[in-house]
Records
---
Amino acid sequence: MVCLLDYARARRGLKPLGIVYPLNRSSTLKALAIVRCADFSHTPCGKPFAATFDAVGYAGPVSTSYGENIAWGAGAAGSPRVVVSGWLNSPHHRENLFSPGWAEQGIAVLPVPTFLGSRDVEIWVSQFGVRS
């Protein structure tokens, strides 16, 4: 997934994003919440969008900006190639991925046996950020 995202950004003349532990962890927490509450949204379980960023200390005393793309798919529809294709064909997700302001990223994939009535599902969370 990271290679596909970096490749897409490079094709637009953008630098690859550094992988950072806090965003990887925040992405994982968001994926876990999505599954736990069966709530495919940027605010699963009724938590604020910033909750996972705050939980890992990414949104701390320094100036930060962050965003995310989420996706899920069953079987082949959950593969990295299909998920990235979906993001690239969605104006909002595409805009997020190609933001020149991002400097860092974190990725999580959570395979689950069932989700919202589908079997063999992959939950993807891709988070982006910049700290100054």
---
Amino acid sequence: MHGSITTILIVEDDPDIRRLVADLLCREGFGVEEADGAAAMDEVLARMRPDLVILDLMLPGEDGLSICRRIRAQDALPILMLTAKSDEIDRVVGLEMGADDYLTKPFGPRELLARVRAVLRRGRAMALAPPSRRFAFDRFIIDFDARQIADAGGNGLTLTSAEFDLLGCFVQRPRRVLTRDQILDWTRGRANDPFDRTVDMLVSRLRRKLDSASPGSNLISTVRNGGYLFTAPVKAVP
């Protein structure tokens, strides 16, 4: 945000669409930055943090899904994805990658503005809410600031740094199937070899420790051809 102006970054390779969206947003009082692809987007993000990214799915070079995944691995920056009507599967994947909403082409000005404002409202509400850093699940309490986990009796569970980060990834996304790639992004924040089995080994170690401390809880389940699912409900605690 530049001062009190809400700034939106448009990542779109079609100059006509990009100009149309930019003009519309400028008329509504938004600040606008433009990029025709990943390289130009990276240049903008290196010098400022916009309040929202409008990201086209089909881009030359690095596509929108890859860009979305890369942004989300580092930042909670709100993302509105633009897709063609035929890209239903890609829209679903885009939301799984972390896009906050999507809009299909062709779209009307009023619908675009409504989506933009809705995503911005949600982002501001999350930013204003003080994030809880302690969560309870099963018989455990995890404290992210202290990087500790203990059972209801106060007995600590010894985890390596990697195991703690993995558990944190699950606790913050309970009852949701997480793919190996998503887990690697969220715990390491970098690309990995698709055949990297580190996640499987870490999950196995973490599962053994949790099961040992809470027998029969089965907190982490394996989803065939999907990934892993943290089965316990999670609630924030003071």
---
Amino acid sequence: MTKTLTSGKQAPHRVRNELAFRTLTVSNKQLVAEQFWRITFQSEALKGFNSPGSDDHIKLFFPEKSATAPVVPTVTDEGIVWPDNQRPESRDYTPLEFDGKSTLTIDFYRHEQGVASDWAEKVNVGDLLTIGGPRGSLIIPNDYSQQLYIFDETGLPAMKRRLSTLKADNVLLIAFAKRQVVEEYLGALLADYTLHCLENSKMDSTGIEQCISLSNPLHFPSDDHFIWLTGEGKAVKQLSDHFIEQRNCSPELVRAVAYWHAKD
């Protein structure tokens, strides 16, 4: 049962999805905003696929270079069993679009020395990939009166999904990314919202201070706000602590997700 907050708004709530592994075929590949490979997959195996949360994650399992076909595990009562106990390397990605039938689209951010990014650079139409999940989804109401989103390029696919459903007037976006990339990627979805791009900043102590400074004028009504933070792990944690401990935001209305971790 969904919880009702003191503001009368609904609290975010989780739903379970049936766990399934699917082998998909690449049907299209295009470059988006010079920073993403948008790859479309098709398969009848997508029947029953469900991804209701804007920042859902599915696991993508990348085959060995010499592999001729993706490895697919078996779901048993005891857990997930991989053939010969050989679990392929995997990464979590947000589904961008699903047509409800047999077509799924995922955007891959281009960066150096990443198993997923490397795969996306080289993949061709007709290649195969195994995916799993999403095992669960967080359903976040779209009508909180004050909303704040802090993200870098890796969060753009989830932002695209989220902005397409928002019903709020007071929304601030702070991006650790080039404005040209964000505007080209999100396009008309930005029309009604304020966007700040910290183009020359990193997700470090200086960048965190800039984010806090930009967010200081915001008023977060009790139980009627939502904050979404993503990007580098330590920065996300520090920002989350700030909004909960210093700005007295509700912990259940602050969504902090580390999409990557800086090397020490």
